[in-house]
């Protein structure tokens, strides 16, 4: 593991994102590979999302991806928050999420939305600590928003 982590924005290739998501697959609840085609998802994130990245050397170790292309210019939607298990619990996800929120605010967006599985208690706690509030909840998803006023 590399001790120093470098932060970048939207520099990862689809292959970098795919490799990262595969390394993090089991950390998702349920695993990402059970819900979608990881290669297609990685290509979509690389092409259409704003990606806040943490790099350990030449390896993508943390990623927060959001779509900031709301036609009304109101909402950014977080699609992915992932940190490689050997880099977890070091504040990377919070730092990347904060960078994404600052980016959305800089674009003039007024809200950041996301959904998380209700059993992903660590993720819900992270989002709550970052200022998100729960707007809806059912057995399949907790919907959360952060107002950027």
In short:
It is built from 4 helices and 7 strands, in the order βααβββαβαββ. The protein is an alpha+beta fold. Strand 4, helix 3 and strand 5 form a beta-alpha-beta unit.
Notes on the protein architecture:
With 149 residues, the chain is an alpha+beta fold. It has one domain: 3-Layer(aba) Sandwich (Aminopeptidase), CATH 3.40.630. It contains four helices and seven strands, in the order E-H-H-E-E-E-H-E-H-E-E. It has a seven-stranded mixed sheet with strand order 1-2-3-4-5-7-6, with helices on both faces. Strand 6 and strand 7 form a beta hairpin. Helix 1 crosses helix 2. The longest helix has 15 residues. The radius of gyration is 14 Å and the shape is globular.
Give the arrangement of secondary structure elements:
Blueprint: E1 6-9, H1 14-24, H2 38-48, E2 50-56, E3 59-67, E4 75-83, H3 92-106, E5 111-116, H4 121-129, E6 133-137, E7 142-147
Parallel strand pairs: 4-5
Antiparallel strand pairs: 1-2, 2-3, 3-4, 5-7, 6-7
Helix pairs in contact: 1-2
**How many strands in all?**
7
Poorly predicted regions: none
Q: Look at the structure and give the mean pLDDT.
A: 94
* Total count of helical runs of at least 4 residues: 4
- Tell me the β content: 25-35%
Assign the CATH superfamily: Gcn5-related N-acetyltransferase (GNAT)
| Cα end-to-end separation | 39 Å
As a whole number of angstroms, the C-alpha radius of gyration is 14 Å
Secondary-structure element series: EHHEEEHEHEE
CATH class membership: Alpha Beta
Provide the CATH architecture.
3-Layer(aba) Sandwich
Major sheet size, sense and barrel closure:
7 strands, mixed
User: Strands across the major sheet, in which order?
Assistant: 1-2-3-4-5-7-6
Q: Estimate percent helicity.
A: 25-40%
């Amino acid at each position: 593991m590399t001790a120093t982590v470098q932060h970048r924005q939207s520099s990862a290739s689809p292959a970098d994102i795919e490799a990262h998501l595969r390394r993090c697959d089991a950390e998702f609840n349920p695993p990402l590979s059970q819900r979608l085609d990881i290669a297609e998802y990685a290509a979509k994130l690389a092409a259409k999302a704003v990606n806040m990245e943490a790099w350990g050397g030449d390896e993508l170790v943390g990623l927060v991806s959001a779509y900031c292309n709301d036609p009304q210019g109101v909402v950014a939607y977080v699609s992915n928050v992932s940190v490689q298990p050997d880099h977890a619990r070091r504040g990377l996800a919070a730092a990347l999420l904060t960078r994404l929120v600052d980016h959305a605010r800089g674009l003039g967006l007024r809200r950041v939305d996301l959904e998380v599985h209700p059993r992903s208690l660590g993720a819900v706690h992270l989002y709550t600590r970052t200022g998100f509030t729960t707007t809806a909840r059912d057995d399949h998803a907790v919907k959360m928003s952060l107002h950027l006023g």
